[in-house]
Amino acid sequence: MGKANELPPSKRILEVNADHPAVQAMQQRFAKDAQDARLEIYCRLLYDEAVIAEGSKVKDPLAFAQRINELLIKDAAS
What we know:
single chain; mainly alpha; 0% strand
């Protein structure tokens, strides 16, 4: 009691709507090829988008932009 500055940091919880078209597309991609390198990128992007949506800043904006560009290049070429 009285030690408000000594509280442990809270952990973020990402709740995913399984019915969302983006999540369904990721599930389909996973079913097609569970080793597809884009899956990790998609997951990281979803997390970063959630961080931005809550009003916070992503830890590494450069990596965020690079992930978006990597997907654009891969998907535009296919």
